[in-house]
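Lecture notes, part 5. Sequence design as translation. It can be helpful to think of inverse folding as translation between two languages: the language of shapes and the language of residues. The source text, in C-alpha cells, appears below.
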C-alpha cells in the first residue's frame, strides 16, 4: 500500500526554512508518511514537469500544511493549492510562521482551524496533527535544537518601519530640496551642511563618508545636484528604524526655514504589481479608510499618496507620499501598504 502524502504548501522565498523542517520532520515520521515539498529538489526530480508533479501531489495527498508567512500571505499560488485540496474534502491546516498570524489569511484558509509556530510547543503541533490524522503514536517531538535550526535566519524586520513587508520594497527616495533655481546657492549649501550634521549628530553614533556630490552612511545615501539645487536621500527599507530618524532631523532643519510639503517615493520590487485602471482602484477602496483627494490622489490618515506603474522596459511600481507637519516615524506606511494588499490594489505576480 502506498504511503500517505503530506503536502507542504509554501512560498518559494521560504524554501530554506521548509527544507530544514522537511528533513527533520521526515526523520521523526520514521517512514510511515511521505512529505512533498516542491522546492526541495527531491520531491520533484530534475528534468520533470514541475506544475504537473505539483498537481499530481495535490491530488494524491491526504493532508496539507499551508505555511502562511509574510512571503506567502498574498501569494495567489498558495491560495490555489489550498483551495484545490480543500475543495476535494482533504484536510487543510494553515500554519503561521515568521510572525504571521493565520487570522490574517483570506479565503477558505481564514475559516480553517490551524496554529502559529512561535515556540517549540507550537512546532510540535505538526506531530500532533499527523498522529491524529493517521492514527499514529509518534513520540519523537521537536526539541530546542530543532527549532533553532529550522528558523535560523537574520531578522531584519525589527530594524524596518515596513516590518514584515520590507522584502517587497526596493528603496525609498526622499526629496529634501526640489526647488531648482528658486533658492540661492548659499541656502542650498547650508541645507547640505544640515544633512551632514544630521548624520554626524545622530543618536545612533554611526559614521559617514562624504564625497563630492554625496554622503554615504549605513542604509542611506544622500546626493545633490548643485546646478539645479536638488537634494535627495535614498534609503534601504531594512534599516529604516535608524535612517528615518536621521532623515527626520534633516527635514526638521530644512522645514524651520520655510513651511512646505515634503514627499518621498517608495519603489517596490519587480514581483509587485498594481491595478492600473483608476475606476477599479476606486471601487476597491470604497468604504475603506482610503478616501479620494484632488488631482487623482488618495488620502489615508492625513497623508496624500498615489501609486502607479512606471512606464519603460523595467516593470516598476512606485508609491508617492506627500505629507506636512507629521513625523516620519508616525506616518502609517506599514498599515497603508498592508491595506493596499488586502484590497488587492497591489499584489504579487507569482509566488
Amino acid at each position: 500500500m502506498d504511503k500517505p502524502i503530506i503536502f507542504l504548501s509554501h512560498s518559494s522565498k521560504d524554501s530554506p526554512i521548509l527544507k530544514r523542517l522537511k528533513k527533520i520532520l521526515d526523520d521523526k515520521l520514521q517512514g510511515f508518511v511521505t512529505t512533498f515539498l516542491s522546492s526541495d529538489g527531491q520531491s520533484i526530480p530534475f528534468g520533470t514537469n514541475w506544475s504537473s508533479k505539483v498537481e499530481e501531489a495535490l491530488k494524491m495527498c491526504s493532508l496539507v500544511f499551508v505555511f502562511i508567512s509574510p512571503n506567502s500571505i498574498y501569494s495567489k499560488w498558495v491560495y490555489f493549492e489550498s483551495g484545490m485540496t480543500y475543495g476535494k474534502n482533504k484536510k487543510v491546516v494553515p500554519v503561521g510562521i515568521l510572525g504571521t498570524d493565520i487570522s490574517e489569511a483570506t479565503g477558505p484558509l481564514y475559516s480553517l482551524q490551524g496554529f502559529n509556530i512561535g515556540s517549540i510547543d507550537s512546532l510540535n503541533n505538526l506531530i500532533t496533527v499527523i498522529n491524529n490524522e493517521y492514527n499514529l503514536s509518534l513520540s519523537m517531538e521537536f526539541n530546542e535544537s530543532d527549532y533553532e535550526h529550522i528558523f535560523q535566519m537574520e531578522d531584519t524586520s525589527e530594524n524596518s518601519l515596513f516590518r514584515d513587508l520590507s522584502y517587497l520594497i526596493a528603496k525609498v527616495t526622499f526629496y529634501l530640496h526640489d526647488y531648482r533655481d528658486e533658492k540661492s546657492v548659499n541656502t542650498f549649501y547650508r541645507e547640505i551642511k544640515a544633512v551632514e550634521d544630521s548624520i554626524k549628530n545622530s543618536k545612533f553614533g554611526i559614521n559617514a563618508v562624504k564625497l563630492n556630490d554625496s554622503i554615504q552612511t549605513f542604509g542611506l545615501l544622500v546626493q545633490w545636484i548643485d546646478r539645479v539645487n536638488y537634494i535627495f536621500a535614498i534609503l534601504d527599507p531594512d534599516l529604516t528604524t535608524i535612517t528615518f530618524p536621521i532623515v527626520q532631523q534633516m527635514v526638521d532643519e530644512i522645514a524651520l526655514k520655510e513651511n512646505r510639503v515634503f514627499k518621498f517615493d517608495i519603489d517596490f520590487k519587480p514581483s509587485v504589481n498594481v491595478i492600473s485602471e483608476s475606476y477599479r482602484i476606486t471601487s476597491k477602496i470604497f468604504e475603506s479608510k482610503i478616501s479620494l483627494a484632488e488631482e487623482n490622489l488618495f488620502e489615508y490618515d492625513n497623508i496624500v499618496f498615489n501609486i502607479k506603474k512606471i512606464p519603460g522596459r523595467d516593470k516598476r511600481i512606485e508609491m508617492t507620499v506627500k505629507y506636512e507637519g507629521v513625523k516620519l516615524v508616525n506616518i502609517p506606511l506599514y498599515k497603508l501598504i498592508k491595506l493596499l494588499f488586502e484590497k488587492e490594489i497591489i499584489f504579487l505576480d507569482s509566488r
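The translated text above is only one of many valid answers, since several sequences can fold into similar shapes. The first helix runs from residue 15 to 29.
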